[in-house]
Each structure stands twice: as structure tokens, then as C-alpha cells.
Amino acid sequence: MPRDTSIKSVLVIGSGPIVIGQACEFDYSGTQACRVLRAEGIRVILVNSNPATIMTDPEFADATYIEPITPEFIEKIIAKERPDAVLATLGGQTALNAAIGLHKAGTLERYGTHLIGADVDAIERGENREIFRSIVEKIGGESAKSIICHTMEEVIAGAEILSYPVVVRPSFTMGGLGSGIAFDEENLRQIAGAGLRHSPTSEVLLEESILGWKEYELEVMRDKLDNVVIVCSIENIDPMGVHTGDSITVAPALTLTDVEFQKLRNLSIDIIREVGVATGGCNIQFAVNPDDGRIIVIEMNPRVSRSSALASKATGFPIAKIATKLAIGYTLDEIRNDITQVTPASFEPTLDYIVVKAPRFAFEKFADADPRLTTTMKSVGEAMAIGRSFPEALMKALRSLERKEAIFKFPADVSKIDSAALLISMKIPTEYRLQQVQQAMWAGASIEDIFAATKIDRWFLHQLDLINIRARELAQPGELNVDVLRSAKEMGFSDAQIAALRGITEGDVRKVRQHLNVRPVYKTVDTCAAEFEAFTPYYYSSYEEESEVKPRTKPAVIILGSGPNRIGQGIEFDYSCVHASFTLRDAGFETIMINCNPETVSTDYDTSDRLYFEPLTLEDVLEIVHAETLAGPVLGVITQLGGQTPLGLAAGLKEAGVNILGTSPDAINLAEERGAFGQVLREQSLTAPEFGMAASQLEAIEIATRIGYPVLVRPSFVLGGRGMEIVYDDASLSSFIARATDITPDRPVLVDRFLDSAIEIDVDALYDGHELFLGGVMEHIEEAGIHSGDSACVLPAMTITASQNQAIRDATLKIAQGVGVLGLINIQFALAGDVLYVLEANPRASRTVPFVSKATGVPLAKAAARISLGASIAELKLEGLLPDSADGIAKGISVKEAVLPWNRFRRTDGRGVDAVLGPEMRSTGEVMGIAETFGESYAKSQISAFGSLPKSGTVFISLADKDKASGIAPAKALIALGFNLLATGGTADFLANNDVLAHKVRKNSEGSGPMGERTIVELLNSGGVDLVINTPVGRGTRADGWAIRTAAVQRSIPCITTTAGFSAAVEGIKALRRGELSVLPIQDWLKK
Asked: Which residues contact residue 22 at a Cβ distance below 8 angstroms, ignoring those fewer than 6 apart?
């Protein structure tokens, strides 16, 4: 049956900002949906608040609304656009919850539109745990024994019946938010309390524990004629108890018998039919008891899920694309497989290789967070690798994480390994549990001992044993001949691992290996185990005989992606890589992408001409360059778009004779190395804050005394402000140095004068060697000292004069010339008084490039890619890629706000981690508001990031002494708006002296009053406060402030920690009070 011709326009609901549990895999699926719908001639209307994704670029939809994803805003969009249908199954839980909200408010019915993909009843059947249980029972499946609870009393009673440990799962949350395993009542109160708060329906499910069972997922698709295909089976290496997003997983499932697999398959097909997901994909999770094979159905997601992106990349079967086609009426047998071009989509994929996904965590950003892995997802990204065997795929995946600790080590002296201690610590799942297992086995622990401690399936343990056996053989003296090298490489050992085992350098191993011609060949991901020819060049490496890389005649450009998402290097860098690929293809070059992140658009098989799914290490990249040089002309490699990962490879690639396009590695080094960069600034007579480089504690204290406290200290060469602190005295400086020594060995610590309360400015610009194009000048809303990635910022800058703007432009030009930039450069300035200080320059794509591109309508990343291949800014202006104006001009007023993952992390004792901003980046994603006024734009950004600002009610204010004066004006404004103010002692007295009346409340440390007066934390917990303004004293976690901020985060009360943010919030509240926040597509803004 051909497509439903009654659908002429579709509203696609996106997933909003990147948060833990809902990352860019939904941007990947949403982008695919937009592309499919437009190819079918359907008008696409998109709503998504995230500026960092390529999905919200003007060319991907006909009307792109960068607005908050709330039923109220979507209703305005529906009223304006009148779409025939709404597609909400590709935007994660955010889109599903919004769709249910629209349905309940009667919006869909009122405007004569309907949901496609899955209707509200099917969503309810899949998501509502009680209804889903009855469905599983009806088809003859089994669920874990469970009890539904709505209050804490019901929870405690339920646990008595099920007996501890019990699993707590809230309804309608994403990435296991608010869930956990309780081993006793105290534990249960803590987890279930959070669960009841996080569930939009205040409902949690208590389940019998199935800890230690094996966990599997199946990706299933169904069309309206009831054809069903199983796209992929995925097995978690970690047994039940660790969220599937935090587990190392493997596809296809490896330890099931054929009978067990057929049972899971049949259950999946029955479930998708009974739930009634009419068209599209869903993900079903199972637990299998390793002792008796009992199968339990855990849950289903009636939408495209995190695993769908993995399954798509693992099989080459584009689930989101096909789900979209099914939603508009096609059937599976009518959709052609892109890769084989002959088989239909009703043909189930078969794999002749193994895929391993490994999660990437960010615990180092939250020093006081509990590092245990539970059913609440904590990872911020993932890497995927493909190999011909499980050991090969596993070793490649671990190497792709870009973490030294993740790679297996084989120390010669085994006596230093305490395997008894490892056997105890591995009982609790943590980030590096698999490494503990490997070390214990290397030291002689038996498979049975490890199985008893971890319940990891013996088959996987046996595979780790094979890796260790191969390592022992490698460590034997004797020459490195072809057989030895080949057998190591087939197991996935890197040159560096072989070198460590032989006691030689990585370079030596590479020389021998290349001399003996032991090189990888590249195989194609073909969906059909080579039964049909594959037409898409989507490759992975393997040490076998026959290479499948096709020869070509067009000159090629290799683009290095950004690897797994992490805090400080997220989807914004993938955005620039994808833009480069699109624009260079249009300009007549062959584009080749290398990346290992399964969640992103860059690793889609049709983004570039060729895709290599490989780790971003020097060894792997050099081998691909070699293979491509044999296939046809290679112009060079672009390293300046993927963040720090490719930049770190640039020098090594150049040394190996590879041409680096754009800014040279020497120029990059000039900007990164402080001494050299200081020289550039002096030559151009620009000012930087005073600084010094210290190799010892004594030197650091001498420098600090010379410059004067406060000082900002950090290791050199880092991204995302890692290991950065502001210190106010000798003692805290000494303790920083003691901790910082291991961050970057052989590299000194930098000590900078810290500019207190300066205005921070961010600039993105293009330079072609002659001419500068200033993309945008952003002003941070938070003052200097808060990492630029975590600060809200506004474009155009609001408080900068025309002469200051000219000074910023002149300084940017001088730095770009002095460093020798070809392409993009990002510079951070600070304005203190009338002095313009240069804080740092990054000669690469920055995380603000997508935001600036959307606010001004100028595709900076596309222009940068063209400049790195020799185009000039003048030529690009003639072509129309850049506007005729000298600089980018902001259309409307745009605000970018960071989204922080505080609610994901707890301390070991169950209390929250402190929600205070500092010089180290902690945000996972961002949102954008765009409007005619700053207040309206800021209000939109807050609604998208944290939920709405209050229009009335009670505001609590507690200011540090240095902030009290700047808090008077906004406090007066709140009173004028009719708010009721609360404040702790010092702040209340100060405000009273300045004619602002605030009611005094008790601090947490003072405890309840003699008459039962409640403390501020008790007031917050009872829901008596609508907005919290709390600026921290100094940089330490002062207990009172921490208790207040944590309580606010846990109750989802907006919490602002800077006075600049306080003033901005007042503007936002005024805009909300004035009434309607209007909506306008970005395409219309850009015409202004």
C-alpha cells in the first residue's frame, strides 16, 4: 500500500537538550525523519529547543521552531501551522510526554490533527507498567512480581511483601531516572522518594529483584499490515542491576541457545502486536535466569530508543528512517534497503561480525558523586566498534573510549596485583569493572571465582581469558614475525599494547608491522552477511585477506569526528563535522568520515561518501589514510572540527607525512602553549591576565603572591575546563597542586590572575589568511569564573559599546593573524573596567558554532571547511555561502542556556551533589531561546532548560557578601511584581537596610526554631518556595548553601547561583507576566 496521501504536513517533535539518558541518538533519528518526510514532498514542521543539533538547522525542515517542548508552546505552533499529523515517536521521552500532554489537553482534537507512528493508547499500553504487565500475562509471558505504589506508606508495605532487595521504577521517566535497587528500608525511602518526585504521575513500581540475571534487548519493527521484523538482538555483558545504557553491550546476542532466542523472538512479536504499535520501531528488554532459563519481560519502549541508534549502526538497517516511512503509510515490503538496493526492509538483517558498545562516563566532573552503577543511567556517551570476533570488537571499543584506564593492561610483575581485593571490589559494578575482571584473571583468578563475584556469563569470561593467553604468548622473547603480529591483531591488540608487552616503543612495532606488510583490510557493513552486494561504503577494519575498499578517481578529504560524547566535547563538534561533509560533497570532493560514536549524524552511512567506523587513535587513522591513498587521491585530513580528539592527533599525523588541511598543527600548538601564545599577544600589544607556569608547589605559591589572589589554576592542554579551580589562598593552592600532578605529566600547572566580576565575551570568527569574518560576539550572562560551556550567553552582546565591539574585532584579527589560523577560531575575552583581556584562543570549531550559526543564519562550519581547502572569504561571499556584510548580524535576540545533570548524581550517602557552577564544565547540553526582547528570550531558555520561571509566589534569596549590593535592584523589582521574599539572616538585614522587606527564615544549620519555625530546607521540601537565588560564598561547598541548592534541584525548583542570573531572571519573569510568549520559525527570523 503506497503512502497516505491525506498527510501533506507533519509536525515532528524533537527531544530537546542533551541530558543523561537522552542524548544525541534522538537527534540522529529525528534528523532522519525530517529528511525522509521532505523527500516524500511533505511539509515538515519541527519543534526542538536544542541549537547544538544539525536537526534544527533551517535546511532540515520547512518551519523550524527553536522553542520549548511543552504542550503550551506546541499548541501555539499547531494553531499557527495546522499540521495534518504529529510524529512523536522519534524524540525520546520528551516528545512522548509532550504528545500525551497535547492529547490530554484536547489540543490534537481541537485542531483536527492526530499522532502517527503510535497512538496515545499504544503509548499508554507500553509505558504504563500495570497495563503492560497484563499484556505480557495475556500473551503467555512472565513479568517480575511487582506492586504499584503512589505514596511512601504503600512503598514500605510493598517491600514487606516482596522482601528485600527490591527494584524501584518510576513511570514515564527517561534513562531510568529516579530508579534504583533498595537493600533495606532506609535505602528504599531515599530511592522511592526521588522516584515519586520524578514521575509525572507520582507512581512507582516495586519489583522483585532479578539481580544477576542475564539482560537482553530486541529491536522490533511492525507495519500496518502486521508484518514484523526483528532488526537486532543485543546482549548486556553486565548482568541485571546495571542500566542498559551504562553496560557494555554486544550485538548480536552471543550466549543464547537457539531455542531461547526463538522464545524471545516470539514474545517480542506477540508483545508489539498486542500493545498495538501500529507502525514503527520499539525496543523490548528481557531478563533470563542463567540457572533455569526462566524468561522475564522487563519493559518496552513504544518508540525509537537509545538502543535503536546502536542497532541501526550495528546492522546498517536505518530504524528511524524506516519507522518514518511506515508512519506515513508504507509497508515493510515496499521499502527498499539502501545498502543492498535489492532486498526489501521486510528482510531481517544478518550479521557476519560482532559489534560492541562501551559507555563513557564523567565521574571526574562530579568528585563527590556515587560511582556505583545502578538502574539510573549515568553515562554521558558511548563508543561502538566492529570486529570479526568478540575480543577484537571489545579491544577496539575500549580503545575508542579515549580513556587510558579503559584499555586492558598486562603488567609483567603479577605479584603487585591484589586479586583477592579485586574479587571483592568487582562485586559492586563501577565504570572499570571489566578492567578489574581482566586484571584479576591476569593475576590468576579462576573463571568460577569471577562468575561468583560478578555473575558475568562464563562465555564472556572465557573470551577475556583468551585475550590474556594471547598477551602471555606476546610477552615471550623471540622475534616479532608475521604470525605473532597477525595473531595479536586478530585479537584486537593495538600497536601500543604490543609495545608494552615487548618493552619497545609503539613506533618500533609499527615499523616492523608495516615492513612485514601486516595491515588491516576493510570490510563492508552490508545487512545481509555478504549474501547480496553492498552499495554503501560503510567500513570496519579486520586483519584478514581481502579488502573491500573500492578504487575512486575524485580527490578525497578525510574528516576526523569527535569520538564518544562527553562533557566538554559533545554533539556541537559532530555538527561541524557533518556540515563540512555536506558542503565539501557539494563542492565536488569525495568525503570520508572516521568516527566511533553510534549516536550521531556523522556516523550515518549516507552523511559522507565513505564511513569508517573505527577508533580515533593515531594507529587506526594512519591505516585508513594508507588504505584510502591506495584507492585514489587524498588531499588531506581535517582535524579542526571535531574538538580536542582530532586536534590531539594532528601533530602525529603530520609527522607521519599526512597533509593537515586548514590551521596547521604548529599554529594549534602556538595557541595552546601559553608561553608561545603570550609572545603572540605581546607582539600584537594585547593584554592577558598576568600568569605564570609552575612545575612545583613552591613556584606556584611564588607566582600567586606576585599576581595576587584570587588566582585560577589549571593544567595545560585540557578541554572543558577539566581540573580547573579558583583559589583564594595558599592552603587551597597547595592542595590543588597535590591533586593536579597526575592530570598531565611533564606539563606544568598554569596560574592566572582571576578577574573577579568581569564580563566574559565569546567570539567565533573565520579567517582565511587575509580577511576576517566575525561570526558573532556573545556576552556571558554569568560573570567570569564560570566555564563558558556552563554559562548562559546572549547574542548580540547586550552591554558592549560600539567602540568596545571594534576593539574586540581588532583583537580577534590580530590573534588570527599572529597564530596563523585557516578556518575557525574561538576567542574568550574578559572586560574588566575598560580593559579588554584575552583569556584564551582555540583555533578550531568551538561548542558555540551551532548557536551562532542559528542566531545569525551564517553556516560557519561550512565556510570553515571550504576555507581549509583554499577558498577565500571573498569567494564565499560571491557564492552566497557568507553574507555580504563584514560580520555576522544576529536576527532577534538569542539566549543559550546550559542544561546540567545534577538530578542524575547522588553522593554515596544518598544526598545530592552540589549544584554550583565553577570553572570546570559540567553541563551535558544546551537550549536556545529566540525573541524580540532579552526578557522574552531568556524566559524561553529557562522554560526549555529547567521548567518555567514563576509568575508569582515566593522567592528565597541568600547572597554572599560580595554579591549583596548587586542584588538590591532585582529584589526591589520582585517586590514590585508582587512576589513574597524570604531570606536568611544576613541577607534579610542587608535588604531591610536598603528598604527591601524580606521575611527571615532559619538556615539549615540553625535547625528548627523553638516555636517549630521551619528551616529553609524544610520549606523547600514542603513546596513552599517557587524560585531560589543562592550565590555561593567563596568556592568551597559551604554546607548551608549546598543543602539549599540540592533541595531545590531535587524538588525541581529553579535555582540561580549568580547575581547576573538573578537580574536576567527578573527580566524573564516580567516578560512572562506581560503575557504571550510568541513563536516564530527560525526561517522567518533569518529573513529579518
From this structure: 15, 16, 92, 93, 94, 174, 175, 306
